[in-house]
Amino acid sequence: MSRIAHEMRHEFADAAWQERHAVTRVDQLREWMGVDTDGSLMRDIQLGLARAPMAMRITPYLLNLIDWSNFLQDPIRKQFIPVGSEILPSHPLLKMDSLHERESSPVDGLVHRYQDKALLLATDRCPVYCRFCTRSYSVGLDTQSVSKKRASPFQMRWDTILAYLRATPVIVDVVVSGGDCFRLKPSRLLAVGMGLLSIPSIRRIRFATKGLAVLPMKVTSDHEWTDALVNISDAGRNQGVEISFHTHFNHPGEITDYTIAAAELLFKRGIRMRNQSVLLAGVNDDPEVMKQLVKKLSDLDVQPYYVYTCDLVDGIEHMRCSVRLACQIEKALRGITAGYNTPLFVVDTPGGGGKRDVHSFEHYDRQTGLAVYQAPSVRPDQLFTYPDPLQSLSPDAQAAWLDPQRAKRILSDAVEAARVKSMAV
Ligand SMILES: *Cc1c(COP(=O)(O)O)cnc(C)c1O
Ligand code: SF4
């Protein structure tokens, strides 16, 4: 079946059809691919999947947005379908679970890193799997390179999580993430939302999902699911608790008529929406692309909230951007539209320091590409480093990083420089 035929089908607007036809194997891509006469593209994808920590899962809706005549450069393809020929060696500072989420989990399925807010991992499934995902240690299926730490069954975890939240009234803000709440059944979504609303100390609840960006027809076709979300939002409003919906668009090309219809529906039904993007090379590492994204999101009544620099994840070094580039793009954006629709660019610091404004480094050496951050509200006694991607550095600096002795010195010099600077303030 051709792509046009797919689009014409009534089923295309049905989320259940999209989920049933999600592509998880390379051979299923063949019908979308057009000519690949010598099979080289197929082999390249197979090589990419063998090297990547995430399993593949992509909806027909997204496959239809890819420009297959320009497959390698396509910004949507890059986020979901790896090719072996683009993968670069990872930065030596990389470790799996670089955000140390597992260390900050007081109970299974809850990350409590910041004082008054916590992150709830409600599922390990997503409607799609993103190459650059931070949680590649737990979401998705096992791959050839990673065997995932499975979360225990939800019902077992849920009572423990609620008990912890009830006993920890300092937590007023809960992010429901995962995985992705688009993969929660309406009854489960409702149970999570109402369960959290039954705890008087919780003042704000966010549902984080990639769904609006990759499966917008869920909102317009899965009425039971959307009603569950709206019921939670209405119940929250009635008791003075803010319920919000956090989406994840990375490129203006991800916003279609389906997205507009879904966002309009949510807006009309009183759902507050915000967006968190990831800064990705070849996807949105361009001020013009980012400006379009911000404008389009604003028109959807989705507030651009954050742009994250890419976490240190194995197999995606080619997608990371430098701190310098993040600062430049932020500078280009600020002032183009309402300040409240201008995203803050943040680094989620490896080692568990939490999110820091990308500009707020204590020290940044553009030669070695190492930025050093403080996180007074999270771990005041520690310094946190974020490395620019190796390919953004000079050949000499790259060689230095690959030599363990010199790499150690780069780290200790940067930390020392940051200490001196922060003491002088
Ligand atoms: C991002 C995050 C939050 C929410 O942080 P905000 O800056 O308020 O968006 C909460 N907990 C964890 C562990 C997080 O990573
Ligand atoms: S949807 Fe979110 S949690 Fe799921 S793979 Fe993508 S970035 Fe990771």
Write the layout of secondary structure elements.
Elements: H1 3-8, H2 15-20, H3 30-33, H4 40-51, H5 60-63, H6 75-80, E1 110-111, E2 117-121, H7 154-167, E3 173-177, H8 186-197, E4 204-208, H9 211-214, H10 217-221, H11 223-238, E5 242-247, H12 257-268, E6 272-279, H13 287-299, E7 302-309, H14 323-333, E8 344-349, E9 354-357, E10 363-365, E11 370-374, E12 383-387, H15 395-402, H16 404-424
Parallel strand pairs: 2-3, 3-4, 4-5, 5-6, 6-7, 7-8
Antiparallel strand pairs: 1-2, 8-9, 10-11, 11-12
The structure holds pyridoxal-5'-phosphate and iron/sulfur cluster.
Structural account:
It is a single chain. The protein is an alpha/beta fold. The chain has 16 helices and twelve strands. The strands form two sheets. A nine-stranded mixed sheet has the order 1-2-3-4-5-6-7-8-9. Strands 10-11-12 form a three-stranded antiparallel sheet, with helices on one face. 44% of the residues are buried. Bound molecules: pyridoxal-5'-phosphate (PLP) and iron/sulfur cluster. Residues 126, 129-130, 133, 135, 139, 178-180, 210 line the site of iron/sulfur cluster. GO terms for molecular function: 4 iron, 4 sulfur cluster binding; catalytic activity; metal ion binding. Keywords: 4Fe-4S, Iron, Iron-sulfur, Metal-binding, Pyridoxal phosphate, S-adenosyl-L-methionine. The modification N6-(pyridoxal phosphate)lysine is found at residue 355.
